[in-house]
Amino acid sequence: MKAFRDWDLACKINAAILLFLLVAGGLIGGVLYWKTRQILSEEVDTSARAAVRLAAERINRDFPVVEAAAQELALSIELLRPDEAQQKAMIRATLERLRKSVPALCGISIAYIPYGADPESRYYMLYTHVNKAGEIEVARIGGEEYQYFKFDWFTIPQLLDRAVWTEPYLDLYADILMSTRSQPIRDAGGKFIGMTGFDLSLEAINAQVVAADVYGYGQEFLISRFGRFVAFPEDPAHPYETKELRDEAAHLSQSTIFSYADLLRAKMFSGDDASGRLRQIGQEMLRGRSGEARGRIFNRRAGVERIFYAPVSAPGWSLGVAYPESLLMAPLNSLTYRIVPVAAAALLLCLAATGILIRILTRPLGRLADAAGSIGAGNFNTPLPVPKGGDQIGRLAEAFRAMQQALGSYTEKVRETTAARERIESELEVARQIQMGILPRMLPPLPDAREFSLFATLRPARKVGGDLYDFFYLDEFHYCFIVGDVSDKGIPAALFMAVTQTLQRSEAEKLREPGPLVSRINELLSRNNETMMFVTYFLGILDVRTGEVRYTNAGHNPPCIRRAGGALELLSTRHGPALGVVPGTVYGSGSVRLGDGDTFVLYTDGVTEAENPGHDPFGSGALLRVLAYCPDSSPAGLGKEILQAVDRFAGEAEQADDITLLILRFNAFAEKGAPCLNS
After folding, report:
1. Which of 112, 141, 175, 442 is the most exposed place for a label (fewest CB within 10 A)?
2. C-beta of residue 285 within 8 angstroms of C-beta of residue 223
3. Topology annotation, domain 81-204
4. What is the pLDDT of residue 385?
């Protein structure tokens, strides 16, 4: 038989714990019984209350997200005035994006007052939802059989003149129980013209309500701001009893906690007045309070229940869970029969024995820890203690000895690696300077240009990046400006960007039309492109005499024109895919005319896809709001406002993609000598 010192460390610790439990379990139980009962009872209440509050907060998280999305959609419609196809695309994209973070979202609608959107049609409602096959459908609905403007979700917020969460209801079109966030849409004069609706499925919300049961045997329920049941309590032990009550109650979506209390008084009279207690609980929940109550209400066969409740603040709802008190106290009752009166004396003996044993067992570990500390301070020749046995401590000492021998060579490798890293950092800095040198310089400016002013900037996510911009005169009256975004980041993207920058300059001397010029650049980039890198690309040519811009968009983000009066116009037409992927592609072109004071805004997806610490994107909607509400300023001032808005949104989040802006303002009546470039 092995000596005790040769036992595994786990065996030594287990022996000590066993000794402690055997001695302490027999001695301390009686002395600590009542105190333990009090502490555990408080712990049960605290855990249940915390679980209900946490579940209420989890349910509540989805509502602000939906509220913000509804407000954003309504604002976009008010600002952009999209046509029917664009509105359908907007609600479909919004549903696809939000369902990832809000699984309960089942539909989005845009509904207008009669003849509000189409003077020839009384009914105009666009609705997108997930059908039974799991696919997203978008349709225009409304008619005599579905007069949406008479439903509560349309009329109540219209009367209140504000956004609201509706009471639960059965939608006749989708045929599901839901609650809707209704957000008014107004015209330019502030008059109500319609509504955006974001529908949450009560079935999906019920699945979240179940998570409030921390112990697994509670009965959960969720009520609305007027006491209507969103989720109805169920008795897992005796489901037929609850079914009997629900069969005699009103339809679930029309039943309230107070009508359920009336049913208890009429059907299930009891001496402790379950009906009155349930009414008190309902009143406290509707006041938005958290709390606890006792009574025989839902599962009367299990005896007295403890009912915990907490508010779901965003929609004004409230969550509750009822637990049978006998099950909550079951662990305490079991503990009662396991405690003996001699617990105090046993605890003292156990503590003394365990303390001595732990000191004996941990003494080698203490010596080894001292030696490890010395080695960690750089004293690699520190002698290690000689193990006296073959347990884990002995093996650990041998491992430390091997580590001690390897640390010297490892330290030298670290020095070499650090030096190599510093060389790489230096080379990357040189590469960044070279790349920035490829971009057109703001100085010296074009001293004779007076027909336009321009701002351009590039902020790479790494030392070097793949975004690009360029601007130059083709002849006396035509000015070319370009923005591109190369796939990937880092050195490969920077090299591809340099090739693109060189080609566009050389080919622009031969071709003066945007379509043929972009087609030629694509053809050259596609040759021998084994890595399949590509660049989204926008090229525009401004006629400084008339303000006409002829342009070609090769898979790039749609630019925006901010008219002198403040109106926004998106150039969403794309004339082909990104450059460098499909050789032989013939790119078309388009044209738009700029008036005096009109501003042409180009950007890369580093602006719209910038993320905050919660991984939410900045989005094109936020960019449009900056353009819409930014005071009339120079291109440099507008560019500064956009960059500051992105920085405020991103906060402490690391920049993930290159950010590039090019802003051009046409000055049809500019005085001679006006500056043309801003950086």
Report:
1. 175
2. yes
3. Beta-Lactamase (3.30.450)
4. 67
